[in-house]
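Support reply, case 0932

Customer input (verbatim):
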Amino acid sequence: MKNKNYNIFLFLSTISRNLMEVLNIALLYKLNYSLKQIILFYIIFYFTGIIVNLLVVYLSNYLKIKYILIISSILLCISYYYLNIMNNNLKSLIIFSILSAFSSFSYHIIRHFYALNCKSNKDKEIGNYLIFTVLGVSLATYINTYILERYSILINIIIVLILGILSIIPLSKISITNEKEKLTYVKLNLRQKLFFYLEQSKVLFLLFEPLYLIIYIKDKLTYIGLFNAVLSMSSIISIYLVVRKINNYKYFKYVNIIFVLMLIIKLNITSSNILLLIAFMEGILTKLYEIVSTKNLYQINNLTNIKSYLLKVEIIFLSSRVILLLIFYLTNINIKTLLYILLPIILLSGFILKQEEKDN
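Our regenerated output:
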């Protein structure tokens, strides 16, 4: 029952979050912000995220987590209302990045906290988590692009708030006993930690992918929605089959090599229709990667202090993204070069995890 309630929460909250977040980068570009300014936005966004994670863990000792999620949903609406009225200047960009960070990272660490408290059968539950996430992202992208093409962004804001609050209801049915556990030192396996750092290159590649499509392929939000819908469809197929049939770790480095080759091919294709075919393959390979990375994230024993573990992992995630983005910001590269630079790091990440460590 825990997992059923968590999956409902995950589905509704993913729609709510991704109604706007999934197209953040494209919307900023539509507001005539340059690539360098957009990179600056994400540097501030991720750096602020480190502070927000620390605050959430601290506040969780005094507030119920569901109240933090309600505040997070309200902040999400405020941030996108601000996006609707903001001017194209540096001050507005900084304010929006900070608002976005508070709304986003007050949610993600709590999502993982509940996931680690709910999972029982590791492979099956991780597969279900990813399926509900993909379904939520796919639906959110479709709704988002449909509304933005025809109506006001304010319609999206109303839907975000309603779904955000509704998503909290299933969580009230989940009994959590370690909500107020005190922080302790958590030691990470060296290879696990290194993988956490390297896999952020994949996160950044997928983050900047919509902007690449708008600049080089088709300058329409509806095309981004269609591209993401194809990705989602193939992702669900791969998750359903792979989680149940294949030893993901055994073949991970080979899958990752094919994944990187597929991304190289994509960066050299200009036909929007052919790219949709590539998107189908990319969706399969992306989720094969994410199955392994999610297993690596949720691979902890029953004695681990979950809040301490997640806080440490989130700091690793965000600090590595900030470092990479700072390098890109200082070098003034174009988006295609940025994506090419990320590819060798993605490739290297496939050779880090060892079979005996993965199966612990």
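We compared this against your earlier run and they match. Two observations from our side: The two ends are 26 Å apart (CA to CA). The chain has a mean pLDDT of 85. Please reopen the case if you see a mismatch on your end.
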